[in-house]
Amino acid sequence: MSSLNSVVVAVVLVGCSIVSSAFAQTSYGTTGLVKIPTADVAEFGKGLIGGGYAADFLGKDTRRPRDWSFFAMVGLVPRVEAGLRLTYGTLFLKSTTDRVFCVKCLLIQESHLIPATALGVQDMIGIEKNFNSLYVVSSKKLGFLGIEPVRLHLGYGTDWWDYISNKAKGHRFIGLFGGVEMKAAPFLSLLVEYDADDVNLGARFSFKQILTVTFNLVAMKHPGCVASLSLSL
Q1: Residue 123 in this model has a pLDDT that exceeds 50
Q2: Residues 71-92: what's their mean pLDDT?
């Protein structure tokens, strides 16, 4: 924890002179908070690549970890993003690689009164899908009492993709999930989410709309860090 605290302090000192904001990737590679997806999608012709460590587990009946992740995501066409995540239980050692392919489509753009709404599928192909979900999620920016904008996210996930593809071995975001994102400074957003299983916390630092670094605390006890870099294709 001492080394993690040192990294946090260093990032804060650098970020104090940088004003920016940018969409960032979850530990599953799609745009979102710590783990949950939001209604944000990558812009057409834009991409995000990243990686990091965030506690996760394979399926519901085993504690074999899938913690180290590397991912890439791209805005395929307007309002549609697609991404791929590779995860490792033991980084680059043993045959513990797992692949997660995700697609998300923006159905409704956010307006003054109406939240943005997106439909997505996580871990949608493969013989043994471990993190599958078919979900809908809405996001809305709020501002009040002079506080910097707060964004609310609320979604619902199902296992209905099992009826379209082969039955998944494990699922994520089954039931109600949601989160709150509050801009504490021009370069810093604080994240709180419920992923339908656990409450997770995050602190996200943004640099020049190019790099984002998210320090996370999964299930309120497992520390980690995920970083993503924005690219124009």
Answers
A1: yes
A2: 86
Token digits for 229? 């870099």
- On whether the CB atoms of residues 121 and 134 are closer than 8 A, the answer is yes
Tell me the domains of the chain and their CATH numbers.
Answer: 2-232 (2.40.160.40)
What is the pairing mode between strands 68-77 and 116-122? unpaired
3-state DSSP assignment of residue 162: helix
Q: What is the maximal distance between C-alpha atoms in the chain? A: 53
Contact by Cβ (8 Å): 137, 151: no
7 SS3 class: helix
What is the DSSP secondary structure assignment for residue 14, as one 8-state letter?
Answer: H
What is the rounded distance in angstroms from the CA atom of residue 84 to the CA atom of residue 82? Answer: 7
What span, in angstroms and rounded, lies between the C-alpha atoms of 199 and 213?
20
Average pLDDT over residues 50-70: 73
Distance of alpha carbon 99 from alpha carbon 74, whole angstroms: 16
DSSP conformation class of 90: S
